Amino acid sequence: MSAIPDYHQLTAAVSANLQPLRKDVAPVMKAFSELGKAALTPGALDEKTKELIALGISVAARCDDCIGFHVRTLARLGASTAEIEETLGVAIYMGGGPSAMYAAHVMAAWQQFSAPATT
Q1: Which of 13, 48, 60, 69 is 20 to 30 A off residue 87, Cα-Cα?
Q2: 81 contacts 89 by C-beta, under 8 angstroms
Q3: Which residues are in the Carboxymuconolactone decarboxylase-like domain (predicted)?
């Protein structure tokens, strides 16, 4: 059984671990970053809707790291708990039991990132 990660620590660690790649394979990482920016640029869908889609895919792909980054962004974009939960409902519908298990991870990440910051 895997423990629910601390998503603040997880996203910080992933970002730190990607630093060497940003230097050593800079063209690849720059292209990946530009792809993300292009995909999330508002068009027919706004940025929040696109992030909700990415969150649903993160659940289906069972990617805790992806969950962390997308939930963090959704908290910044002002997503509501209801929007997160409806996204998870669709992900569970499409991915069954494994997606339900990762939906629990999303709810933990949401609690972590949507909680008021303490100083």
Answers
A1: 13
A2: no
A3: 28-108
CA atoms within 13 A on the CB side of 56: 20
Q: What tokens were used for 5?
A: 């990660």
Cβ pair 78, 113 in contact under 8 A: no
Q: What is the pLDDT of residues 74-113, one digit of tens each?
A: 999 999 999 999 999 999 999 999 999 999 999 999 999 9
What does the alpha-carbon distance between residue 89 and residue 9 come to, in Å, rounded to a whole number? 27
Q: 64 is written with which tokens?
A: 């805790």
Cβ–Cβ < 8 Å for 90, 116: no
Q: What is the CB-side half-sphere exposure of residue 72 using CA atoms within 13 A?
A: 14
Measured distance between the N- and C-terminal CA atoms of the chain, rounded to whole angstroms? 33
What sign for the dihedral angle of Cα 11, 13, 19, 22?
A: negative
The per-residue DSSP string of 26-60 comes to: HHHHHHHHHHHHHHHS-SSS-HHHHHHHHHHHHHH
Taking Cα atoms as reference points, which of 63, 62, 87, 77 lies closest to residue 14?
63
Top-level CATH class of 46-114? mainly alpha
